[in-house]
Amino acid sequence: METDGCKLHEALPCRCGCPRIRPGPLSRKVISMSYPKKLSPEFSGALRTFSFWVANGTLGYPLLEGVDYRSCLGDEPSMLEMAYAIFANVLELDEQGVPVNAKYAEHRAAQYIRQYCDPGYQARPAFEDWEQELYGPPDRDDSKPWPAGVA
């Protein structure tokens, strides 16, 4: 059954509010997925690598080649906040917590930075609300006690 809804989210329950009629083939897996208590080494590697590329100016090569986005960071830290939000919101993990689309998540974050720094550039596809959602931080107090002797 076809819908005129979101083509980006055919395999998942759509987060953008489009009029989906049928769930995609992975929806049961996503709903029943058990989440790991710690992030996987592969996720840690994806986040570390993304951060390294942001810091050294090579994120999203070749899309950001020649774009000095690092000069904006001191004056406009919200650009970096949104780039990380997009990376985190777009990134998908398999049942073991291993990223399955880290390069695409990086590309979407790079598109945002390019669009922010270059008024003539428009990301394709356009960003959806769920990609740019800024979620609140965790509680200020950890529910897990810190190790003894650490303060």
Automatic annotation (TrEMBL):
Domain DUF7677: 38-135
InterPro entries: DUF7677 (IPR056094)
The protein's name in its UniProt record: DUF7677 domain-containing protein
Organism annotation: Pseudomonas fluorescens (strain ATCC BAA-477 / NRRL B-23932 / Pf-5)
